[in-house]
Amino acid sequence: MMKRKVLLRHNWKTKVFVVVLLGFCFSTFLLMEAQYRRIGASSMLPQKPKIAFLFLARNRLPLDLVWDQFFQGENENRFSIYVHSRPGFLLNRLTTRSKYFLDRQVNNSVQIYWGEASMIQAEIILLQHALMDPFNERFAFLSDSCIPLYNFSYTYDYIMSASTSFVDSFADTKEGRYNPKMDPVIPVNDWRKGSQWVILTRKHAEIIVKDEVVFPMFQRHCQRKSLPEFWRDRPVPADNSKEHNCIPDEHYVATLLAHKGLEGELTRRSLTHTSWDISSSKGRERQGWHPVTYKLADATPMLVQSIKDIDNIYYETEYRREWCTSKGKPAPCFLFARKFTRPAAMRLLNMSALGVSKEASSHSLSLMR
């Protein structure tokens, strides 16, 4: 009798344990299922199109802290970063102070030489890497001396609201850089000049990467001069065909897209401001246009504001004035500016003159309305 009572008590405890265990397992199952549903729902949210920021640098990025502030706090599903530096250079904790640039260098970079097609090759390499991400929809080329003028939200909205590429492109009738040997592959009527700091749609980026016609002509017929134009020791020869420095980076993209008949798909201006000056200190034969470099003493809020106030660009060779708009309304012409030294850029950042932080977002976005 005693054994029976002990057995019954034992069976009762066993049943309670089994019920509790089953309840625990069931509740755990329900909890895990809810978590998986949340994860699945979040993964099914539409991925926003991204802007690929493509930096062309000599070595490290001297303005990485300025760009760090620009990207700070933004959802990284709206941008990606690629950097082309000299072969073998690594962006690690010793060479960059920004988490956004860690390991962002491409692994097949080439040595770039001024005035040669190697600059185009570097641009193509950056595009090849960026096109691997199917969510990259815009491709913005930037130099290592470039600063942003607005915060990320304003910049993103400005670029993504346009269905076109932003490519500075105009007829080149004065420079004499066109090599007649390019004809008939590249007719003179297709020859264009413009800033290399373009922003491309995915369609146009793919056209550049797949190009096997125009790029080889630049490689063959654009040879490097010993020195830039404004450093020459002798005048340009009367017969320009004997010395051709096409400056490929200023001609290739605009010429290729004109050659393809795609100028109707472009906003024919750059979003990067460059100030040009002429050097005449060494005599007439050394004159030539070159970009101004802003140093510490130049870096003032007034300078930045003067760039932001530009609302139109005049192209003398085409007698064309480009009024700048965004979403069909008047807008500043430039989102970026160069060339800035690190001390100059850091001074502007410390003075809050660039408007790249979150605090400036409400003012910048109001400009778009």
Automatic annotation (TrEMBL):
One of its GO terms (molecular function) is glycosyltransferase activity. GO terms for cellular component: membrane. The keyword Transit peptide does not apply. Keywords: Glycoprotein, Glycosyltransferase, Membrane, Transferase. It is a single-pass type II membrane protein. Its main location: membrane. It is found in: Membrane. Pfam families: Branch (PF02485). This is Glycosyl transferase, family 14.
